[in-house]
Amino acid sequence: MVQEFVAWFKEKASSSVQISVSITGELPDFSDYESVWKNADLAKDYWSVVVLDRDGTIIEEREYLSEPEQVRLIPGVGAALRHLREMGFGLVVITNQSGIGRGFFDQEQLERVHGRLRELLEMEGVHVDGFYICPHKPEDDCACRKPRLGLLQKAAGELGFNLANSIVIGDKACDIEMGRMAGALTFLVRTGYGAQFENEVAADYVVDDLAAAAQAIGRLSRTQAPAISDL
Q1: Of residues 222 and 184, which shows the higher confidence score?
Q2: Measured distance CA(8)–CA(3) in Å, rounded
Q3: pTM to 2 decimals?
Q4: C-beta neighbour count of 48 within 10 angstroms
Q5: Which string of DSSP letters, residue by residue, matches 47-64?
Q6: Rg for the chain (alpha carbons), in Å?
Q7: What is the mean pLDDT of residues 41-54?
Q8: Which residues contact 223 (CB under 8 A, 6 or more apart)?
Q9: Which residues have C-beta within 8 Å of that of residue 83, sequence separation ≥ 6?
């Protein structure tokens, strides 16, 4: 009966998220799924997906990067993303790429860049659930350019997670502003442009890099989120 509940809970919460439930005290009546759902105090503080900026967070910052050979992972990123995966988090990349709108490169070139990034991450044993790109210039006033929520909402709809149950990590003010508008937990990393914004943004946490963010998330998950690992 417990395993049947876990399968039902996964479908209820999000098919893309690794879910299990830790129970203390008297075993509840798992035949009444809805009652357990309502009374288990599971949901709103449980983070399910980590939303990542690309340039300056995962890969080295390069102005209008357009060639696959320019892609370089920031040291420690592979291990950090593996750690997040091992904790059960989904991984999503959301990136502003106005170089397309400015005519510096096209969608095909961007796809080759992301193909190389996927290769590097696969070599590190990391799978990313989705890449979401805004190709517009700031003056286009689109709904998808960070800090607006268009791409985050699209990702949530396609992957099945709640915006407020996500963690946003980036090196720019627009990343943190997007996360705060979504009600997400936010981390500013000092890599890329992050050190320049450290005293200008209201991130929940400011850390040196993605590796430090993953370590902090691990500590927070153990102390604040429900225990979700043993069924």
Answers
A1: 184
A2: 9
A3: 0.78
A4: 23
A5: --EEEE-SBTTTB---TT
A6: 19
A7: 71
A8: none
A9: 214, 215, 218
| Domain 49-223 falls under CATH 3.40.50.620 | no
Note whether 224 and 216 are within 8 A (CB): no
What pLDDT, in 10s, does the model give residues 169-186?
999 999 999 999 999 999
In the annotation, is 55 catalytic? yes
Q: Is 22 helix (H, G, I), strand (E, B) or coil?
A: coil
User: Quick check: is 41 catalytic?
Assistant: no
Cα–Cα distance list, 206 to 69, 101, 222 (Å): 30, 31, 19
Q: Which helix (H) or strand (E) holds 187?
A: strand 185-189
Segment 76-93, tens digit of pLDDT: 999 999 999 999 999 999
Q: What is the pLDDT of residue 15?
A: 40
Query: Is residue 129 a contact partner of residue 161, using CB atoms and an 8 Å limit?
Result: no
The residue among 159, 231, 181 whose CA lies nearest residue 9 is 231
CB of 95 within 8 A of CB of 55? yes
Place of tokens 């689109």: 142
Domain locations in the chain as residue ranges:
2-39, 49-223
- Amino acid 50 reads V
The CA distances from residue 95 to 110, 135, 147, 150, in Å, are 11, 9, 10, 12
User: Residue 169: beta bridge partners?
Assistant: 52, 187
Catalytic residue among 29, 32, 41, 55: 55
Q: Which of 53, 171, 175, 209 is catalytic?
A: 53
CB atoms within 10 A of CB 108: 8
